[in-house]
Amino acid sequence: MTDSLSTKPGPTAEACDPPRHSGRTTQGKNPERSREHNRRVVLELLRRGGSLGRKELADMANISTQAVTNIIDDLLAEKLLLDLGRKRTLRGLPPIQYAINPDGAITIGLEIAVGSLTAAVLDLGGNPRSVEQIALPDMTASVVLTIIGDVVARLRVKYAAPLMGIGVVMPGPFEIEGLSGVGPTTLPDWSEVDAVEALTQTCGVPVFVDNDANAAAVAEMLFGKGQNVSHFCMLYFGAGIGMGAILADQPLRGAFGNAGEIGHIVVETNGLLCQCGQLGCLERYVSLHALTEAMTRDGVIPDSAALIRLYDDRDPAILAWLDQAAPYLARMISLLENIFDPQTMILGGKMPEAILEDLIARLKIPTSVANRRLRALPRVQRGHSNENTAALGAAALPFFNAITPQLHLPQDQASL
Ligand SMILES: [Zn+2]
User: Fold this and answer.
1) Is there a contact between 213 and 238 (Cβ–Cβ < 8 Å)?
2) Taking residues 396-410, what's their average pLDDT?
3) What separation in Å is there between the alpha carbon of 324 and the centre of ligand 1?
């Protein structure tokens, strides 16, 4: 177990700076062809609401009580819901309450990084059940896929609950020529492989592949600071820095899955040389890699624990790095605010918590559209951060696909 994703209820919708265009999708549809959509709506309302009765669900989803009853019967049969019995009320026959059954299903999240695989298991309540690291001696696709197959098979034996799906986070950007330092060279021969197809074949359940920033944004949306926030930007510190945006309750992926690749935006003319070949990229100034490089002494590269010790000792070099990094990050945040008009910015990832908190405290963000007098949410806040964030975010991807109502269901897309 880890101290990872908070499963406490998030802020209420009222407290959350309601956006003008919410894009809320917790409204059902009545025709039988929309049953899959309505099922997602019921699951989403229960995920957000904790426990609810049939009538409440029908009213909130704007679908018939009979439709809700059919869906609940199915979900109970699949053990995805718990029947909590009747809630005590002052008069009348109290309604039976239903809630999501945490033991009803699990998901597995995998983070493929150079040299190691992190595997996380989440239950249906969003509680982390286990997180482990496995060494990857060889990054070629066939070796990594074999190891993943073994890990998934072992975890399926260990956890009896049905496996709902697998989320995989792997280094992006995808299919880009030129950004070789962060792309194909870190995963040799993977560009030849259809990762989703190969992983689905290997694991035998639906597999969702995304980049770490998008996965982290989905995790914050389902279980963290993004609960009940329809529009937010997640700045994710992996080795570099990336952005995952949730807009109108949906992740922004772009045409090729690379939306939010902000690490290679040039922020300093004639600045530091980046692995991508450009000069002055953001991640040369604001990233775990930049911090680690700044704190390397006599060839000794500090790990996370060493960085935390240096920070706790108020090492002048680490404080100087924070001073230098904060203005670059602040300018990027105001730029993103002007482009995306989010309710809040959430910062998280592998940057040690205390250092990230300090970085946030040093931000002097230029004026942007986010300068509103009546803000309900902070302009910038820290989300979930530790070494396992990406794997836990990956594990959230199948939940998002199984539970969260999509704006465009297949039948909607057909009419586009
Ligand atoms: Zn770059």
Assistant:
1) yes
2) 67
3) 18
CA 283–ligand 1 middle distance (angstroms): 7
Which of 1, 414, 11 has its CA nearest to residue 226?
Answer: 11
Residue 177's contacts (CB-CB under 8 Å, 6 or more residues apart) are: none
CA of 281 to the centre of ligand 1 (A): 5
Nearest to 115 by CA among 134, 130, 132: 134
CB neighbourhood size of 34 (10 A): 18
CATH of the structural domain 104-210+392-403, one choice from 3.40.50.10440, 3.40.1180.10, 1.10.10.60, 3.30.420.40? 3.30.420.40
Cβ contact 84:51 at 8 Å: yes
Cα–ligand 1 centroid distance for 284 (angstroms): 7
CATH 1.10.10.10 fits 1-100, yes or no: yes
Residue 13 has pLDDT above 60, yes or no: no
- Position 16 pLDDT exceeds 70: no
Do residues 112 and 187 touch, judged by C-beta distance below 8 A?
Answer: yes
Helices marked H in 341-365 — which ranges?
A: 353-361
Name the segment(s) of the chain with CATH classification 3.30.420.40. 104-210+392-403, 230-385
pLDDT class of 172 with cuts at 50, 70, 90:
low
The fold of 230-385 is Nucleotidyltransferase; domain 5 (3.30.420)
**403: which residues sit within 8 A by CB, 6+ positions away?**
40, 43, 44, 47
pLDDT of residue 8: 39
Phi, psi of 197 (to 5 degrees): -65, -45
Helix (H, G, I), strand (E, B) or coil at 196: helix
> Separation of 303 CA from ligand 1 center, angstroms?
23
Q: pTM higher than 0.85 for the full model?
A: no
